[in-house]
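Hello forum,

I keep getting stuck at the same step: I have a sequence, I want structure tokens, and every attempt I make locally crashes halfway through. Rather than fight my setup again tonight, could one of you with a working pipeline run this one for me? It's a single chain of 285 residues.
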Amino acid sequence: MTTPAMQPLRWLGQRAPHMTLREIVPGVLQVRLQTWVMSRIHFIATPYLVRETLIDTGSSHLGPVLLPWLASQRIHDIALTHHHEDHSGNAGPIAQARSCPVWLTRPDLFQTEGVADIPFYRRLFWGRPHTYDPRPMPPHLLGGDLVALPTPGHSATHTVFFLTTERILFSGDLLISLGASATMRYEDPDALVRSLHAAADLEPRLVCTGHGHIHERGADRLRTKADRVEAAILTVRSLHASGRPAHSIVKEVFPRGILEDEQLRVLTGGEFSRRCFVDAVLRNT
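Reply #2:
Ran it on my machine without issues. Output:
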């Protein structure tokens, strides 16, 4: 089911955010959100309403379309896959309106990884997150049907949610590309590999990501990514042991898309790039 959610408005001089809904299975809605700026970089944010639990809240720039729709929905609690502003941005006003808890793994870290002082490019694309008060993530939600599994790597607070009744995994940013790729400087590729295997061991039939993708044969996709990231890690360490400098290792591990990666590095002030992946591996070596 795909339903237009809102007529275009003006937002910061551009077309307002828009929303469509997709029913994955009965009781599970994918909420597809995008602003004009996000569309320029082919980026979409996708919270999920699983019965009465809202998984992720999109960025604050998406609030003008998300919050009015949520006003007509039953929400018992909010579960964040992690604290980055494109996932947590609207948690504050939703929780306040519903007097409901916001669950987060490692709530002591919710102002880390650039969130407390958001770089310009992140403010431009996602906006500053509204203030919220996270509580420690319980191991189960929805009366036990939704398992919360900590999966650090992309973020120290990262968690996936497994709906046992349908074998659906809500993976946040655990699975975006199917191989090694550019990362933020805060990431831990070794932890990511372990988390991918832990999520795959749940044997999900579907993996619903935080940015629009729905993967069938979910466990296979998770293991494929784990194997490819691990292979890249081993290559980085082997080249480093042979005396290769980091910039040369980047070109060896990621031979294609060098210009695009350099553009990303410049745009993000070095916060997001393939060099960050290599540096993160070497930090753990």
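The first helix runs from residue 36 to 40. If your local run keeps crashing, start a new thread with the error log.
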